[in-house]
Design goal:
CATH topology: TIM Barrel
Family: Belongs to the uroporphyrinogen decarboxylase family.
Shape: globular
CATH class: Alpha Beta
Order of helices and strands: HHHHEHEEHHHEHHHEHHEHEHEHEH
Keywords: Cytoplasm, Decarboxylase, Heme biosynthesis, Lyase, Porphyrin biosynthesis
Protein name: Uroporphyrinogen decarboxylase
Largest sheet: 7 strands, parallel
Strand content: 5-15%
Bound molecules: coproporphyrinogen III
Catalytic activity: uroporphyrinogen I + 4 H(+) = coproporphyrinogen I + 4 CO2; uroporphyrinogen III + 4 H(+) = coproporphyrinogen III + 4 CO2
Helix content: 40-55%
Number of strands: 9
CATH architecture: Alpha-Beta Barrel
Number of helices: 17
Distance between the termini: 44 Å
Main location: cytoplasm
Strand order of the largest sheet: 1-4-5-6-7-8-9
Structural class: alpha/beta
Radius of gyration: 20 Å
């Protein structure tokens, strides 16, 4: 494995593994993206997936929020969850202002065999992500840890069938409730690739990884247990087992199931070190259910960043007080930063996290 510069700030790794920290670490989902003028400048010059596929550009964009604020405790590699469907052989375009579009989504279960690659060589198809991770890790020069990620199988299956964003996922759900066995076969195929992809990211230099089940909350608790939980469980178990077999240091694993408040109990028991929460979950409720078994991450409503500086400061303070800074807690939003967020407001958020985090910890110590 490549040698990397020593890490100067390991707050997030310690927090994710349940160790004490001087203050709660902070990062944002979608921290590298459209709310930043410096990202939009690159985006005007290149297609979205060209940015993802060009390690030098992905490195540049990953570092943009780290350089701008100098207050973040982690970087997340610039890429997308939809690189797995691409590796499987599906075409995906990113339409400006509209989001992802599959010109030819999966329609019937036979498409699994006729339209998707039988065997995906992850190291070939997704080599550009591995290269971007290694390059970014070097460029970070140990300032903060680098996070890798994948989309969870159900969320990716839904995109592959819906062909893009959707209000009710009716096409993807038609598969679940008309062809449950074929759906499971597809979910397993995505799971196998996701496991190999995450292990490759860790070998390339990712120091923490997050699994995004962005459409978890679209499933009933009963269906979640059939179509999501078994697959995200396998991902945590198999990634950890394989790393152990290969004598590679494990990295903290984070699960984000948006909308799946009902699954907090099961999510505490399946091998993830940290659970990322959306804003509909009350911190006290999350703590009562998870009982210290995992670190919690989140969970301010991203739209509070559209509010006044005063409101941002008071919401951050309340969040830190409720989650309890300094132990088993990572500050984040409940979902990604929205494209219309003012970067100045992000700065107010980050400065408050640092200030209040230290203040609350000192109060505990003194
Ligand atoms: C569902 C999902 C996707 N992608 C992702 C998810 C899971 C997180 C979530 O639920 O939001 C994850 C993702 N997408 C992107 C990252 C990069 C790292 C980061 O800064 O977090 C990450 C971690 C870049 C991106 N991914 C995308 C952009 C904007 C692309 C553009 O310039 O048009 C960026 C910077 C495009 C994208 N990609 C996707 C959508 C729905 C969209 C369009 C809407 C949107 O931007 O929120 C799929």
């Amino acid at each position: 494995m490549t040698e990397f510069p020593p890490l100067k700030n390991d707050l997030i790794l310690r927090a994710a593994l349940g160790k004490k920290t001087e203050r709660a670490p902070v990062w944002f989902m979608r921290q590298a993206g459209r709310y930043l003028p410096e990202f939009r400048k690159e985006r005007e010059k290149h297609d979205f997936f060209t940015l993802c596929r060009t390690p030098k550009l992905a490195t540049l964009i990953t570092l943009q929020p780290i350089d701008r604020y100098d207050l973040l405790d982690a970087a997340i590699i610039f890429s997308d969850i939809l690189v797995i469907p691409q590796a499987l052989g599906l075409e995906v375009e990113m339409l400006s202002g509209k989001g992802p579009h599959f010109p030819n989504p999966l329609k019937v279960p036979q498409d699994i065999d006729t339209r998707l690659r039988k065997h995906v060589n992850v190291y070939e198809e997704l080599k550009y992500v591995f290269e971007a991770i290694t390059m970014t890790r070097k460029a970070l020069n140990g300032r903060v840890p680098l996070i890798g990620f994948i989309g969870a199988p159900w969320t990716l299956m839904a995109y592959m069938i819906e062909g893009g964003g959707s209000n009710n996922l009716s096409k993807a759900k038609t598969w679940l409730f008309s062809y449950p066995e074929e759906s499971k076969r597809l979910l397993q195929k995505i799971t196998d690739i996701g496991i190999e992809f995450l292990i490759g990211q860790i070998k390339s230099g990712a120091q923490m990884v997050q699994v995004f089940e962005s459409w978890g909350g679209e499933l009933s608790p009963y269906d979640f247990n059939i179509f999501s939980l078994p697959y995200i469980t396998q991902i945590a178990e198999k990634v950890k087992t394989q790393l152990k077999q290969e004598n590679i240091e494990p990295v903290p694993m984070v699960i984000f199931c948006k909308g799946s408040w009902y699954a907090l109990e099961s999510l505490s028991n399946i091998g993830y070190d940290t659970i990322s929460l959306d804003w509909t979950i009350d911190p006290a409720y999350a703590k009562a259910i998870t009982k210290g078994r995992v670190t919690l991450q989140g969970n301010m409503d991203p739209n509070v960043l559209h509010g006044t500086h005063e409101e941002i400061r008071s919401t951050v303070r309340r969040m830190l007080e409720n989650f309890g800074t300094g132990e088993k807690y990572i500050v984040n939003l409940g979902h990604g930063i929205t494209p219309t967020t003012d970067p100045e407001n992000v700065k107010v958020f980050l400065e408050t996290v640092h200030k209040v985090g230290l203040e609350l910890n000192n109060n505990i110590i003194n």
